[in-house]
Each structure stands twice: as structure tokens, then as C-alpha cells.
Amino acid sequence: MKIFVGIDIAKLNHFAAAISSDGEILIEPFKFTNDADGFQLLVSKLESFDKNSIIDRS
Predict the structure, then answer these.
(1) Are 2 and 20 in contact (CB under 8 A)?
(2) Distance from C-alpha of 22 to C-alpha of 58, rounded to nearest angstrom
């Protein structure tokens, strides 16, 4: 299973969500702040997934 993570970047707050290659919502859209605590929240939500399953479209 591949996982697609979408991140909407802004100055103060960002939004992220994740879906599987089958279209299943794995992480409902959530807001995180543009600081260390916010990015830790993002990382904590993504840690449960196999890092080889996440598609990088840099």
C-alpha cells in the first residue's frame, strides 16, 4: 500500500492529511503550527506508517 500525504503550507499554520493508494483516508485533515511543536505533531501522526510506503513528490 502506498500512502500519499498532502500538506498545505502557510505562514503560521499548515494543514495535512493522508490517504492510501486505495483512496482510504488514513489521517483526517488536521492543522499544525509552523514551529517545532507543530512539526512534532506532524511527525507523530506519520510515525505509524512504514516510511517506504510514503510517496515523495518533492
Answers:
(1) yes
(2) 22
The whole-angstrom separation of Cα 38 and Cα 31 is 8
Identify the domain containing residue 37 by its residue range. 3-49
Mean pLDDT of 29-52: 93
At 19, is the secondary structure helix, strand, or coil? strand
- What span, in angstroms and rounded, lies between the C-alpha atoms of 21 and 46? 16
Domain presence at residue 54:
no
Confidence of residue 50 (pLDDT cuts 50, 70, 90): confident
Number of domains in the chain: 1
Measured CA to CA, the distance from residue 25 to residue 16 in angstroms comes to: 12
